UniProtKB/TrEMBL annotation:
It comes from Pseudomonas aeruginosa. Belongs to the N(4)/N(6)-methyltransferase family. Residues 2-118 form the DNA methylase adenine-specific domain. This is SAM-dependent DNA methyltransferase. The keyword Nucleotide-binding does not apply. One of its GO terms (molecular function) is N-methyltransferase activity. GO terms for biological process: methylation. Keywords: Methyltransferase, Transferase. InterPro entries: DNA_methylase_A-5, SAM-dependent_MTases_sf.
Length: 121
């Protein structure tokens, strides 16, 4: 709550599972803050595996080229990321909604139907 009301959490990026393998198999969230002004909305972005990939590993890590799509979407902080638009991998959640969720940042992608996980984790 304190970070959201004293800083701007402008983006939460959720790389695919395995991006931090072999160090951890836990899903990773990257939080991008700007100090000084309160959060109004939080953008969520879920980068996808490249074609032909089902997971990342030590021998098949995430490559810098894979950030090109996200970089094109990212926009400029100076204009408040005005160029950002929602798409199947990006969505925005208001501070009021996060507050109603008791500050829980585990916001599911609204552009994806109900997901059934067959992952034993």
């Amino acid at each position: 709550e304190k970070l959201l009301t004293e800083c701007t959490l402008h983006t939460t990026a959720r790389p695919p599972k395995g991006v931090c393998n072999p160090y951890t198999g836990i899903k990773t969230n990257l939080l991008f803050f700007t100090k000084g002004t309160p959060t109004k909305d939080v953008w969520f972005y879920e980068p996808q595996y490249p074609a032909g990939y089902k997971s990342y590993s030590k021998t098949r890590p995430m490559r810098i080229e894979e950030f090109a799509v996200e970089e094109a979407w990212w926009g400029r902080e100076a204009d408040g990321f005005a160029a950002r638009v929602e798409n199947e991998f990006a969505w925005k959640v208001s501070l009021d909604e996060l507050k109603a969720r008791n500050w829980n940042l585990d916001c599911k992608n609204p552009h994806v139907g109900e997901q059934i996980s067959h992952d034993p984790d």
